[in-house]
Amino acid sequence: MSVVAEAQRRRTFAIISHPDAGKTTLTEKFLLYSGALAEAGAVKARSGRRSATSDWMEMEQKRGISISSTALSFEYRGFQLNLLDTPGHRDFSEDTYRVLSAVDAVVMVLDSAKGIEPQTLKLFEVCRSRNLPVITFLNKYDRPGREPLELLDEIEEQIGLRPTPATWPVGISGDFRGVIDRRTGEFTRFTRTVRGSAIAPEELVDPDTAAAEEGSAWEHALDESGLLDAIEADVDLESFRAGESTPVFVGSALTNFGVRHVLDAIVDLAPAAEARVDAKDNRRELDADCSAFVFKVQANMDRSHRDRIAFVRICSGRFERGMVLTCDRTEKPFATKYASTVFGAERTTIEEAYPGDVVGLVNAQGLNIGDSLYESTPVSFPPIPRFSPEVFASARPLDTGKVKQFRKGLAQLDEEGVVQVLRDPDMGDSAPILAAVGQLQFDVFADRLDAEFNAPIEILSAPYEAIRLTDAESAKRLREIGGIRIMERGDGHLVALFESRYRLQRIEGDEPDLTLDHIIAG
Ligand code: GDP
Questions:
Q1: Are 139 and 258 contained in the same domain?
Q2: ipTM entry
Q3: Ligand 1, pocket residues at CB < 6 Å
């Protein structure tokens, strides 16, 4: 099959949701429906069942959360679906945002009893600002929940995405009978299975039979669907692909209701891997020579041998294990002798890959997040947006005899993007400030310094509220003003840290000539 044909059968996506909305359950069910798992329940270990969780870090288990992203591939209807996992914790993390730069669509899972929960709003807004196509799944409809029409309003108001229901529930939440496919008018009736462990028996029922058998539940569903017709809330491929409207599906991952409709939508509606635009706005055609970019770096995943894996998304050409790729930043060759797909602790050697696929390159010393790789024709893909840090802390080694290990850890975890390490230009590594999007990043940082570098640290809060990019000239002036600290980022850029947001606003107003740039978000 040609590279273009291979790309056309790829669907690369992520599931985003608030913790507990059902992301893991839906992932399991996707695997079940695709035939990749014989029995659901193998993704997240629950009460002694087989575990294939990402257990890269002890902390994950301690907290019961998944901090590292994994990529999962499975076949469905002759298509290859690449599901990139996003960390499912309550805190924001840059990791999640970076994953979004490597996918072509997302499935947004909402708990239909809760709707959009504040902590995850930001994540949804990022999808919106990047015009990523979003498929919405209103989950847990087997339980009493909120009115679906109300949930649609919430999606529109809070995220600015126009909801276009593809299916509509028959029966109220708690007594869920099935869904109408608004595109065909057909009724899909669901039957419960034992704890949802097997594929739910689905019965395709024609509208007349549905009316006769489901009575008022059917009529009510038809009425509501009619209302939606009237406001032209029909699935629209063009605005979905532009990230303006979102096809909505109703179901229950736990009982498998509606799962197949979502999988079908990923195949039928979500875009295939397409030619990517590079940093100079040129298209890198799918059938050009192989190219990829690094969206995630993770070190020390395997305790038995120290290693560093760079996760790349293939953008063009055919990737073959063993090929030599060049890194655009260093112009150094990288031999891809060890290439694997990584799911949890399991690694499978990958021999070839196509646009849309994710490959974990082992022994990737020298590759950083945002680097592009190419086979022969040079290319640089646009930089992955960095998020403006919102929380700040200082770090101090607890054991003064471990300064060397501390420095090594700082450098590596900064490169990996676990946190941003800011250094005082005069003091170097001795009093770094850590900057992050969410507090949890500090905990991960401290945990890994201790576990992997044997350099336990103390994290102390730092009194800063805002950060701006600046230059040497403005830094001179800012140093004269109190309450501002000038630091240097890993990439050499100068940043100014402000103890008060109010103060920053005043300075911006009073001295408009100073360079105080926002760190791009979104
Ligand atoms: P995640 O944190 O988003 O990955 O959520 P999980 O998939 O782990 O689900 C959180 C909890 O909600 C678990 O106890 C699931 O069994 C439950 N759950 C998931 N989907 C459904 C559903 O459709 N209906 C009901 N009633 N519970 C569900």
A1: yes
A2: 0.99
A3: 17, 19-25, 88, 139-140, 142-143, 252-254
